[in-house]
From TrEMBL:
It comes from the Bacteria. One of its GO terms (cellular component) is plasma membrane. InterPro entries: MetI-like, MetI-like_sf. The chain crosses the membrane at residues 7-31, 66-88, 100-121, 127-150, 178-196, 231-250. It comes from Azospirillum cavernae. Belongs to the binding-protein-dependent transport system permease family. The keyword Cell membrane applies. Gene3D superfamilies: MetI-like. This is ABC transporter permease.
Length: 266
């Protein structure tokens, strides 16, 4: 068994530190008692975390972003699963064109998509609505879900499905009890990646969101245009803490390796 040498360990430690440094700095700034961006050299304070509760627009924007991410990711998975199974299992005329169509949002700048969606939704009466936000987010996050589900579906042994069918299982039962568990790691990974991209999206959403449907990234973007204080750092740190807590709970209850990789715990 090969072991990493000292130089490799040092390089890995420096690389990991380079990745974590911005996150640690943001978390440190969030605890400053000062009214400007600074490390808490004069002590630690929860002043800016309390300030989040005094700004209900941030709380409302967080709820909107959470609901938008869940809705758009779920719809993207509903579309991506049959599309991935069809592309992976069947050879039909236009197969490559269909796959390219589903992946095409990756090649279009989000600012272009934002302007296009703004004009389109305005013409059909969905401008500034939550439905319009969900539909637009489904378009841009669908490629991420499709790629992971397609990877899980490609090369899957269909003999198990054939055995289920030979035992009298219907097509829906075979999919629910056989196919879906086999591609579940790809589905779960695709949903998580789609949710992250939806929750973090700001470039396109700026054009589509309205005062009633402002997401958290857009709210933060608008806030820093007129204010320079640690409130944004406190919001970011709170999101980091919530993400870490959610991962720990999920790993404790179900197991991240089992969910994302498809293997049980040893």
């Amino acid at each position: 068994m090969n072991r990493n040498g000292p130089l490799a360990l040092i390089f890995n430690a420096l690389f990991l530190g380079f990745l974590l440094a911005p996150i640690l700095v943001v978390c440190a700034v969030a605890f400053t008692p000062d009214g400007y961006l600074s490390l808490p050299t004069k002590g630690v304070s929860l002043r800016w975390f309390k300030a989040i509760g005094d700004n209900p627009e941030f709380v409302r924007a967080f709820k909107d972003s959470l609901l938008l991410g869940v809705a758009s990711s779920t719809l993207a998975i509903i579309v991506a699963v049959p599309a991935a199974l069809a592309i992976a299992r069947h050879k039909f005329p236009g197969r490559e064109a269909v796959q390219a169509l589903f992946l095409s949002p990756l090649m279009v700048p989000h600012i272009v998509l934002g302007i296009a969606f703004l004009r389109f939704f305005t013409q059909i009466g969905l401008g500034g609505t939550f439905v319009g936000l969900v539909l637009s987010h489904v378009v841009i996050i669908l490629p991420f879900a499709l790629r992971l589900i397609l990877a899980a579906s490609t090369g899957m042994d269909r003999s198990i499905e054939n055995a289920a069918a030979s035992l009298g299982a219907s097509a829906w039962t075979s999919f629910r009890r056989v196919t879906l568990p086999l591609i579940l790691p790809g589905v779960a990974s695709g949903w998580v990646l789609a949710f992250i991209n939806s929750f973090d999206e700001v470039t396109m959403t700026v054009f589509i969101a309205s005062p009633e449907t402002t997401t958290l990234p857009v709210r933060l973007f608008l806030y820093i245009q007129d204010n320079i204080d640690p409130l944004v750092a406190a919001v970011s740190a709170l999101l980091i803490f919530m993400t870490v807590a959610a991962m720990l709970v999920l790993d404790r209850v179900y197991g991240l390796e089992r969910l994302l990789v498809g293997r049980g715990r040893d």
